[in-house]
Request: fold
Amino acid sequence: MKNVFKVLGIIALVAVIGFSMAGCKNDDDSNGSSGGGGGGGGGAGSALVGKWYSTQTAANAGTGSATYEFSSDGKIFVGGNSVSSLSYTATANTITTTTSGVSLGTINYKIEGTKLTLTGAATSGLAAGDYFKKAN
Reply:
């Protein structure tokens, strides 16, 4: 049952991103700057970087698709797929997700060893729950 909720969370994330991309008008960038910003690469968010699986067994095996992968350049991969416009920034205990420069929301996180716990609002596009990284 827990995996069903995670799958539903991933489906909801893809739907939110799809609808947000379809609903946004395409503005020309008249000042020549390129928007952007990820930010998991250093500081508080650096512990997030890597592949997070739904079970410790799956994480240790390293097979199959990770539920979430946080890259060092601030991108999030969901179920092994790159969602090109989904990015994140992290503080000491909060992840903020954005798509096409628009904030989706925040979710709280805590890392203990190889366990990542996400709690709080699901408006971030990330599903609350426990996720695991490969043990060293």
Q: What stands out?
A: The chain has one domain: 2-20+49-132. Strands lie at 50-52, 68-70, 75-78, 81-90, 94-99, 102-112, 115-119, 129-132. The radius of gyration is 15 Å. Residues 2-23 form the longest helix (22 residues).
